[in-house]
Amino acid sequence: MIRQYELVERVKAYDPTADEGILNRAYVFSLKAHGAQTRASGDPYFSHPLEVAGILTTLKLDCDTIVTALLHDTVEDTLASLDEIENHFGAPVARLVDGVTKLSQLELQSDQTRHAENFRKFVLAMSQDIRVLLVKLADRLHNMRTLSFIENQTKRRRIANETMDIYVPLSERIGLQTIKEELEDLAFAEINEDARNSVNARLEFLRQESGDIVTRILNALSDMLAGHRLRASVEGREKRLYSIWRKMEIKNIAFEQLSDIVAFRIIVEDVADCYRALGLVHGAYPMVPGKFKDYISTPKPNDYRSLHTSVMGPERQRIEIQIRTREMHEEAELGVAAHWAFKQADAGSDGKQYRWLRELLDILDNAAGPEEFLEHTKLEMFRDQVFCFTPHGDLINLPRGATPVDFAYAVHSDIGDTCVGAKINGGMVPLRTRLSNGDQVEIVRSTVPSPSATWESFLVTGKARASVRRFVRSKQRKEYEALGRAIAEKIFREAGEPFAEAVVEQALPRLKLKTEVELYAALGQGNLSGKDFGDACFPARRLTGVASRALSLVRGRSGIAKAGDAAIPIRGLESGVAVHLADCCSPLPGDRIVGIVAIGMGVTVHTIDCETLVSFSDTPERWLDLSWDREEADNSVHVGRLSLVVANETGSLGELAMSIAKSKGNINNLKITNRSAEFFDFLVDVEVQDARHLTDVIATLRAVPCVSSVERARG
């Protein structure tokens, strides 16, 4: 265990101006607060915050951060309070301690929800001060080093998976490469111990077989650079076990096929020497095609800069070489801590300066709850990158597999919301197109926001998914409210009463709802039945209008019947949100329609002669009389389904498509349901304006010689 004077000396070694007094007070305060507490290993509990502080001294962090490390568990695990910490150590330290505290007292529904909520609050805290993340990573690193002392295997596995899912990508995002690699290896040992042991055994065998090859390659590279009078230091090290295993998994290759188990690093004076060293290496050894990456001109999201290349090096060994300056090397090893930002007078520790953290905050704003936030955060952080450009030449880095819609949301949320098309390198492409390195992307925008729920099937970034979900939720809410209000007005008409907001407001306590908006949304979504609403509004009498009208619809179904005066208009409600057009009958404007209320899903619209309605005869309370109530200028597109029998002749499919096009219809989908030597049976979905338009299409098709029969399909 680190002694008190040793900790102070470590800090003073890199920061002579450090406040020795506050370090000593924090050491004693934490020691007394934790008292006789012990860890699973049997060590005094105080050894944990002390080791965390020791880890942070290797990153050369400021005095407040080291004090926070000593105190980070006192509020959660001892009788100490935040007020007490603020009185003894000041408000900045108290804020940091509060940000790092695990908030275990939070009482939520499940372990997953509690974990997600804690992580949500943790992101908020580190957005105010990135040092919260640094302390948390050091805390997790020491906990992982002592993970083996926990007897419960399920708990060990949960902690290891959480480390791999959250803390490894976080440490990578702020450039703490050393901590990232150790966390990966420690989690790997718990999650897949057999695989780790296998890789380790093969690596040991390779060491014995190859002898001192690393030293020989180091000497050869050093001599080559020195021969060209380039001042440089050359280092070589084996890759970590998890890094080796992951490469084997991704590339689906055996250990023996790996050629870059040892990585070499050339460290030079300045950027110009980086490119000079690269030229010398490529001049001396053949380059492996496709293995050169320039992270100096296009840094990674965590500001990592270096040149990477693979060559057939000394002794015909394929080796990986990284070339960087001393400053780049420090940043690569220490990440944000290398900037000494927290020791300067301007105290640039505001987490919002990091783009990736701002994107997490955007996800936080858009997510419906903590679990959805955690899901999108994992998507956002744990991805390989592609680099694309805006038309103005700005660089946008995205996860591999990202689409133009992900790109649009990465530039700005408003651009994502209004995206309707995209050009890649000047050519129009589908929105689901995967982006590649170097693509120039131009987003085609509409004047109004129009994200589609179907985008979720191809979106990659957490920010884009969260934004689309928020828009869809908002739209659903508004449409449920509009539908619910229409249902409420209809129930008042059936009761013979004028619609009155005052009556609705009086019904709220009886329905255990707080606001009229909440009531209308519940009514439109189907969570509140029309009968219950009517009984709550008119408790002195029993309403039978809903049931009797529905029964009359069941008994007298006719496709020619005209909508009644009490029919609910669905104009303005988008299909697939609060109102769903049934696939079994594909209703079109002009058809007589009824609605079936589905709990939590809104209303499904059927034609009055749809055979499926028979199955709802026993639940008349779920029926709604609906009408299209279309405006003359309504040019919206609907899909009607046709069943055709077409002669198996050359060009018949072309004649079919041409006839539909002449009738100003558009084929949306086509399916062959049966085929023989003479005839093909088709189901064709056609985009039309209404039922009359579909009838015109049918009439045109009947005049085509190769069409044996055509009729509107039901089901």
Report on this model:
- The protein has 715 residues and is α+β, with helices and mostly antiparallel strands.
- The protein has five domains: 4-194, Orthogonal Bundle (Hypothetical protein af1432); 209-339, Beta Polymerase, domain 2 (2-Layer Sandwich); 352-470, Roll (Ubiquitin-like (UB roll)); 472-627, no CATH class; 638-712, Alpha-Beta Plaits (2-Layer Sandwich).
- 47% of the residues lie in helices and 16% in strands.
- It contains 27 helices and 19 strands.
- The strands form five sheets. The protein has a five-stranded mixed beta sheet with strand order 1-2-5-4-3. Strands 11-15-13-14-12 form a five-stranded mixed beta sheet, sandwiched between helices. Strands 17-18-16-19 form a four-stranded antiparallel beta sheet, with helices on one face.
- A hairpin with a 5-residue loop joins strand 6 and strand 7.
- Helix 4 crosses helix 7, helix 8 packs across helix 17 and helix 17 (355-366) runs antiparallel to helix 18 (370-381).
- The longest helix is centred in the C-terminal third of the chain and has 33 residues, at 462-494.
**Helix-and-strand structural type:** alpha+beta
CATH superfamily of the largest domain: Hypothetical protein af1432
CATH topology of the largest domain: Hypothetical protein af1432
Termini gap: 75 Å
Structural domain count: 5
CATH class of the largest domain: Mainly Alpha
Please outline the major beta sheet.
5 strands, mixed
Q: What would the principal axes of the Cα set say about the shape?
A: extended
- How many individual helices? 27
Mean pLDDT: 80
**Strand sequence of the main sheet, in spatial order?**
1-2-5-4-3
Low-confidence stretches: 102-110, 339-353, 376-382, 557-565
* Number of E-state strands: 19
Could you say what the CATH architecture of the largest domain is? Answer: Orthogonal Bundle
**How helical, in percent, are the residues?**
40-55%
